[in-house]
Amino acid sequence: xxILSSQPLGSAKENDEVHTVVLCSGKHFYALQTYLQxxxxxxxxxxxxxxxxxxxxxxxxxxxxxxxxxxxxxxxxIWSQLNSGIL
Length: 87
Description:
By secondary structure, the protein is α/β, with parallel strands linked by helices. It has one domain: 3-Layer(aba) Sandwich (Rossmann fold), CATH 3.40.50.11610. The protein is 28% helix and 23% strand. It is built from 3 helices and 4 strands; from the N terminus they run E-E-H-H-E-H-E. The chain has helices at residues 28-39, 42-45, 61-68; strands at residues 4-8, 20-24, 48-53, 76-79. It is globular.
C-alpha cells in the first residue's frame, strides 16, 4: 500500500501548470475526481492535481512535503473529506 499518491486531474503537461492541489483520503478521491471532471472544462481541469493520503497516522509529513514540491506553481491547497453527518 502506498502512503500517498498524486496525479493531475486534467492534461497538465508540466506540474507547474497546476494551481490548485486537492488533498483527500480514501474512496472520497474517486467521487471528487468524477465530480470535478464533470464540472470543469478540460482547460480548467489541467490546473488541478490530487494528492490522496492513505495513511493518516502517523501522518506522512515528509512524504507529503516531498510531493507538494512537485507542484511549485500551486497557489491553493484544499483538504476535502466526506461529511458523515456526525457532529
